[in-house]
């Protein structure tokens, strides 16, 4: 039951059996995270490069911790402290790093498709850690792992993703992954924050919060980017919060045991109240832990190289 | 279960061998005190559980049993990736007298991996090895403390242990068609 690809660029093209393999492997990795000494020798001598053209703390740290727990060597490249500021092209940067012996690139870029370009240039595995408004597959996988742990299944669940869908690569990865595994996905938000041609996506669309989360098993609350307001996509933070903020009262529309997720960092009091964020329903810190487990699984599975990829 | 090889141990013989090993473990360790049994996934685990139950029946003391997956410790990561299963060791191995259990002892590489995995969880007092079948052809200096049966084999033959918990029957089967 191997993977069918060299790179993880998005969940749109990944098969359900691959998702199942990654989630099963990640569940096993959680045992390593629970040990007093969190280190296994598996990836000794493997070299992983994180190449982040966009700032990130949690995703990058999560990948770095995962790689270190698995004993891989990790190098972190970001534009500020590298030859990228001297005008080197992406193509030359990755060619240089490949020549140094990188086995895997973890890439974040503001342009959708940048990881695809890099993947076409190098024999190393490329993991997309967020590209433009396209996908953030490892976040989608950690969200699925968190739901699977809480609910015991993905199939048949109703999952509402609430907020700024247009600008959210998390929403897209969640949508592709969850629908492949048999869940129903709803996009909930003001119409100005719903993507163009949303009717072509495999989702139900709601512009009313209470209708959107009615009877849901899971709500994924997206971070509202305050700078969007300046562009006139919603009138005021206060209005957004009153119409789409997730509060204890609002949550009553969903199932009593609804799982509330947030990819972080949270704007407490805007898209989610502190009361909900700290409640039994919220699984925000579990998501963070599961992120490390999922990335350990990705390092393990995608560093296997050709041996692990089924013959095309 | 359909098999095309020769049965070299049947259910009764397997039961007697495991029962004998349980007695030997108690005798060699002068009782069940501080004992812990760890089965290597996948077929070492049911044997470990049976040994645990037998020791409890004989001595009236329950012995903790764990399940170990060694995928993260294998020496052939570059060429072959085993699925990573969940290790469940519900006790602290520190200062325990650990009996490691596998169904077949062959090259010794699995045992090497398992020893590393256990050492990463703590420092046991010592580790002993129990196997149902020792088929020879060692590639590492590993030997078993408890052996169900020594089974001389050709390297190309395959030895399969069927256990009722996994395969629905107890039998050891040897066939020429091993890969």
Question: How would you describe what is shown here?
Answer:
The complex is a heterodimer of chains A (312) and B (179). Chain A is α/β, with parallel strands linked by helices. Chain A folds into 2 domains: 16-135 and 289-308, Rossmann fold; 137-287, 3-Layer(aba) Sandwich (Rossmann fold), CATH 3.40.50.1370. Chain A contains 12 helices and 9 strands. In chain A, the strands form 2 sheets. In chain A, strands 7-6-5-8-9 form a 5-stranded parallel β-sheet. Chain A has a 4-stranded parallel β-sheet with strand order 2-1-3-4, sandwiched between helices. In chain A, helix 5 (137-151) packs across helix 6. The longest helix of chain A is centred in the C-terminal third of the chain and has 19 residues, at 284-302. The radius of gyration of chain A is 19 Å and the shape is globular. The two termini of chain A are 14 Å apart. The mean pLDDT of chain A is 93. Chain B is of the alpha/beta class and 179 residues long. Chain B has a single domain (12-155), classed as Rossmann fold (3-Layer(aba) Sandwich). In chain B, 27% of the residues lie in helices and 26% in strands. Chain B has 4 helices and 8 strands, in the order E-H-E-H-E-E-H-E-E-E-H-E. Chain B has helices at residues 11-28, 44-59, 109-119, 164-167; strands at 6-9, 35-40, 65-68, 97-105, 126-134, 146-150, 158-162, 171-175. In chain B, the strands form 2 sheets. Chain B has a 5-stranded parallel β-sheet, with helices on both faces. Chain B has a 3-stranded antiparallel β-sheet with strand order 1-8-7. In chain B, helix 1 (11-28) packs across helix 2. The longest helix of chain B is centred in the first third of the chain and has 18 residues, at 11-28. Chain B starts with 5 loop residues before the first strand and ends with a strand. The chains are: A alpha/beta (312), B alpha/beta (179). Chain A binds chain B through residues 1-2, 21, 24-25, 27-32, 35-37, 39-43, 70, 297, 300-301, 304-305, 307-308, and chain B through 69, 71-73, 77-81, 83-88, 116, 120-122.
């Amino acid at each position: 039951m191997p993977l069918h690809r060299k790179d993880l660029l998005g969940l749109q093209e990944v098969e359900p059996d691959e998702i199942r393999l990654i989630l099963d492997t990640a569940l096993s990795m959680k045992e390593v995270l629970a040990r007093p000494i969190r280190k296994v020798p598996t990836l000794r001598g493997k070299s992983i490069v994180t190449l982040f053209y966009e700032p990130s703390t949690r995703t990058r740290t999560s990948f770095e911790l995962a790689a270190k727990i698995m004993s891989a060597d990790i190098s972190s490249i970001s534009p500020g402290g590298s030859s990228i500021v001297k005008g080197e092209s992406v193509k030359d940067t990755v060619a240089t790093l490949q020549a140094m012996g990188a086995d895997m690139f973890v890439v974040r870029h503001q342009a959708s498709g940048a990881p695809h370009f890099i993947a076409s240039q190098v024999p190393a595995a490329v993991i997309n850690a967020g590209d433009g408004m396209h996908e953030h597959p490892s976040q989608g996988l950690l969200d699925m792992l968190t739901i699977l742990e809480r609910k015991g299944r993905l199939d048949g669940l109703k999952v509402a993703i609430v907020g700024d869908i247009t600008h959210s690569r998390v929403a897209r990865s969640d949508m592709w992954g969850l629908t492949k595994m048999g869940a129903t996905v709803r996009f909930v938000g003001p119409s100005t924050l719903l993507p163009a041609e949303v009717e072509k996506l495999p989702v139900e669309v709601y512009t009313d919060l209470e209708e959107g989360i009615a009877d849901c098993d899971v709500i994924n609350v997206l971070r509202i980017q305050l700078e969007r307001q300046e562009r006139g996509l919603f009138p005021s933070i206060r209005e957004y919060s009153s119409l789409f903020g997730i509060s204890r009262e609002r949550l009553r529309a969903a199932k009593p045991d609804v799982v509330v997720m947030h990819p972080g960092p949270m704007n407490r009091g805007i898209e989610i109240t502190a009361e909900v964020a700290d409640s039994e329903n919220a699984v925000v810190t579990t998501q963070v832990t599961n992120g490390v487990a999922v990335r350990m699984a990705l390092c393990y599975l995608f560093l296997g190289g050709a041996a692990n990829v089924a013959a095309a | 279960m359909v098999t095309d090889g020769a049965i070299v141990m049947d259910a009764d013989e397997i039961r007697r061998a495991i029962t004998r090993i349980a007695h030997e473990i108690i005798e060699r360790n002068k009782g069940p005190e501080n004992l812990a049994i760890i089965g290597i996934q996948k077929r070492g685990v049911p044997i470990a559980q049976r040994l645990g139950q037998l020791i409890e029946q004989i001595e009236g003391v329950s012995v903790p049993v764990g399940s170990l997956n060694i995928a993260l410790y294998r020496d052939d990561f570059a060429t072959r990736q085993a699925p990573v299963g969940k290790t469940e060791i519900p006790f602290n191995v520190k200062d325990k007298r650990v009996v490691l259990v596998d169904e077949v002892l062959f090259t010794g590489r699995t045992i090497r991996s398992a020893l590393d995995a256990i050492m990463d969880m703590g420092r046991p007092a010592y580790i002993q090895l129990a196997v149902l079948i020792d088929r020879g052809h060692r590639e590492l200096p590993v030997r078993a403390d408890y052996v169900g049966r020594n089974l001389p084999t050709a390297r190309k033959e395959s030895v399969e242990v069927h256990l009722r918990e996994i395969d629905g029957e107890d039998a050891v089967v040897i066939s020429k068609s091993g890969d």
